[in-house]
Amino acid sequence: MFSNVLRQKMLLTFMSVLIIIWIIFEISQNPTKLQAVLNASFSFHSCYTSMKSLCPETPANQSRLPTEMKLREESPKMTAPVKSPTEKELRIRAILEKLDQQIPPRPFTHLNTTTSATHSTATILNPRDTYCTGDKLEVLLEARDYSGRRKEYGGDFLRARISSPALKAGASGKVTDFNNGTYLVSFTLFWEGQVALSILLIHPSEGVSALWRARNQGYDRIAFKGKFVNGTSQVLVKCGLSLNSSTELCKYLYSGGEEVFYCLKPQHMPCEALTHVCTNQQGVSFLTDKEKDLFQKSNIGVEMMKNPKFISVSRCNKREENRGKKCQIGTEIPTPSGYTFQGRWVTAQCKQSLLNSSQINDCLKRKLIYFLGDSTLRQWIEYFPKVAKKLKPFDLHGTGLYKKHVLLDAEGHTLVEWKKHSHPFITVNLYSVIDDGYIPQEIDRLLGDKDTAIAITLGQHFRPFPMELFIRRAISIRNAIERLFLRAPDTKVIIKTENIREMYIDTEKFGDFHGYIQYLTLKDIFKDLRVGIIDAWDMTIACHSNILHPPEQVIGNQIAMFLNYIC
């Protein structure tokens, strides 16, 4: 028994020695194998224990040892970690999902099944012979199609307004959609006299659905061209917010790479040679022929209010309403936010101060004022010297309308500056991108203090592009303002909403439905931030200013509101 056990032990020892000798011989013939085994084992162990990243793959030209293969076969299958969405991405998704729910698909077979302004009914609730200033007037609207059938869903794009042309008076109405084909339109009767009532069907819900679907299809409606300059050589190349090309691209990053502007890289020129950009509209449409019929001029902005179209309003021995506190930043904006009377804007939520020339000059001393946005804000800097006569233009040697504009009062140490926002900026004229005005970056560059004021607007140039682009930019601006308030909480920031424009312009690209969605979204994004709001949308409805660049009277009212916020 004992001898058998001893013989087995000796046999095992002998076999072990043979195996060790064979291994030594193999290593002496190819020493890289040992290193490969060790590397593979270490790599696998590190990856398996940390669980933070995918194991590096073995190069294709390197043979796998049996040990390495076994480890890979027995190891659990591993995938690259999914990058968690950022807080901003989650906010963008939430806003888009909410909008998708509010603007559901509304397919239709024929124009006759869509909302008809003629067949719909508008009924004044609790009608009276005479109304009093300050009263609410309500109209119940029932939407019907061209066959007179009651609509069973909402979503029509309506615009409600009261006006007294002889008094240069106007105000918007508030529309409540019950999502069943009925709407409640509420008007506040701000002034006395004969008042006209108007409810326009801008687009039926089927058209709204088509516009929303088409808008989010892509970036092809607007083409960008970039001008590259290298010494005496110049070249124009294709650029855009999204480029599908197999050739080398120049990428211009914004907001830490969250937003990118692309250009095809010219031969023999660096990407830094880009100096100017311009745009052209493309004949691209994502609407069907049937849907395009909804946007014929005869089908846009059709009056729904029949009789009575006028009501009589008297003062009824009421005192003029006390609007309480002075207008200041952070005040909540109601709907409607005000009205025009004798051409002057009167706010509904606060008491405005009518500043004279001397008070304006005193207010502006040592002020640094920055206007960041589109050409509707450029109108401000063009109008400003009419209310602050000490401000004089300062030539920075730029060219064209879209150069940086500066006003100076050297004696009062006052600076007013306008700078266009960055891409997308739509114009057939070349504009410089050397001193690019990406608004979040511009805000980050400002030190800020109690004598610094910033006015911001964006919207008109974003209408032809997917809604995500506008939402992302608006959130980036909000984040930059929050950073500004951390270092300089006394800085005054004012948001000017976009205004309405021509009703019969290219609806798919620039229609007011796109602007209205952006207007509501912008107010939602900034609602709990301590900024001032100038409701240009409401102002231009009240003034019946259906043009991209409102008249001087409207610009004067906007600047008066701006001065009330900062003075």
TrEMBL record:
Secretion signal span: none
User: What Pfam families does the annotation carry?
Assistant: Neurexophilin, NXPE4_C
Q: Which residues form the NXPE C-terminal domain?
A: 345-567
Lineage, top-rank taxon, reads Eukaryota
Q: Which InterPro entries match?
A: Ig-like_fold, Ig_E-set, NXPE4_C, NXPH/NXPE
Tell me its family. Belongs to the NXPE family.
- What's the name of the protein? NXPE family member 1
Instruction: Tell me what gene encodes this.
Output: LOC101982450
